[in-house]
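Q: A reviewer asked whether we had any structural model of the full assembly, not just the individual parts. We don't, so I'm hoping you can provide one. Inputs are below.
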Amino acid sequence: MGDEMDNFEHEPGSVTLSLRLYHALLTIYPSGFRQEYGWQMLQVFGDCCRRALRQAGLAGLLLLWGRTLLDAVQTALEEHSQRGVDMSKEKFIKLSGWALVLGGPAIALGGLAASRPEYDRFNAGSLPIDRYINAVDQPLLLMGLLLLSAGFTGLFVRYGKDSGAFGRFMLGLAAMAGVISAISILSLAINDNEYWWLAFVLGITVLFLCATLFGLVCLQRKVLPRWNGLPLVGVVWLPLLYGMVPVWVMIPLWLLVVAGFVGLGYLLQSDSSPAGSASAVI
Amino acid sequence: MTVTTPIPDDLLPMTPAMFNILLALADGEKHGYAIMLEVEANTHGAVKMGPGTLYGSIKRMLASGLIEEADERPDESLDDQRRRYYRLSGLGQRALHLEAERLEQQVSLARLKHVLNKAS
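A: Here is a predicted structure for the entire assembly that you could use as a starting point for your response.
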């Protein structure tokens, strides 16, 4: 499909750029789906770009992008969940529940470890154990983010249909933000630059923000079979992320976050019956 | 004697996207973008499908046998050779007919209960 991008070289700059970005965005779909329909989707998106530009200029193109991003996130998750990775939907939901159960503690431990100073024997604030803690914060955060992303994908598959368009979008965005943040941590380990750092902070912020907004949807629509206030435990995340609280407050707050994710994961794995899940969403 | 395949239970009632795509194909085969434009026009802009929704739906409708890919292009000189055209299958036509009947009954019921009168 890459060579076929050359066919769009004669387009206006904004359309060419949009097509290149959409071409990159297609990688979020399963490879089989991409191979079968990627070129068709790119062509249709190109047609839409030209029409939007003709009718409403750059503002129209931006509006189209907003709609297309939402569409891509939702349908990519649907395609991935339908592919099933040789496992039944029920089994996938159950496993993603356990991913949340493990992801909560991993992200909390990683967050706590990251809040410790670099070990320096001349600094009274750092302890000898910090040299070991400093070594595990990034792997813990990476593992936690990937597990939480898997967990949110499971929530999307199980409760996406009941959550409405906004709730579904929040779940999808949380899963994607977790993956973006995890990729940024890996990239930081290879090349320590401010853009990867920014992507990491932005990713994790969006993940927790989406979890919080999904919590509001749960309260309003009673999406979960019980404990609908559980995802809202995410509201305690903000001061933790930016180190705005002293350690003695940080630990109980992280424990709350852990309790929220562990509870949500336990609920998900125990409610993995496919009845009512987001099957065949067309 | 003609034997018609029964419509599988899980295809009815249809989702709005599925119904709109079948309706767009009711008067002839179309490619993806033409389907998208027709759905938008038929619903006065209320349903705007993105490429993901469109081709995700097409994939599932092909798998369930409601639509099929057309072998021939309507006019090869006017169009990109690589565009794929889709058309209703026999099963798709019957499913569309049944769904339209079901919706008609719903509308009749709404009229009977003066729901439409109240809204207007």
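A: Points you may want to mention in the reply: Chain A has a mean pLDDT of 81. Residues 110 and 140 of chain A are 5 Å apart (CA to CA).
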